[in-house]
Design brief:
Blueprint (H helix, E strand, L loop, with lengths): L3 E4 L5 E7 L4 E7 L5 E8 L3 H14 L10 H10 L8 H9 L3
Antiparallel strand pairs: 1-2, 2-3, 3-4
Length: 100
């Protein structure tokens, strides 16, 4: 694979290309109908850190629709949610956001 591309529903795009001359990857952002608008070079030794940050930000937005609850999360939910509350990924996320 020589590059990776992602286009969001609005037509804005992200392209990732290797930079062999400098051990890094290049993130190139573009908006619909315009040339590339921004780019960022990430050294290879920081790629995993960037991916971990992206995953962390995704988790903070809330659970994915239909997300499954692990046994550990279910036990935590039973401890922090009111008695009789329906245990859902959304309810658990709300409780975690509230600091429970």
């Amino acid at each position: 694979m020589s590059h990776f591309e992602y286009t969001d529903p609005d037509g804005d795009r992200l392209r990732i290309e290797p930079v062999p001359a400098r051990p890094s990857v290049l993130l190139i952002l573009g908006t619909q109908g315009e040339d590339d608008t921004a780019c960022l070079r990430i050294p290879l030794h920081h790629v995993e850190e960037v991916i971990a940050g992206l995953r962390d930000m995704a988790r903070q937005t809330g659970p994915l629709p239909g997300a499954r609850i692990t046994d550990e999360q279910r036990a935590h939910a039973a401890a922090v949610l009111p008695p009789g509350a329906r245990i859902t990924a959304q309810a658990l996320h709300a409780a975690e956001e509230a600091g429970a």
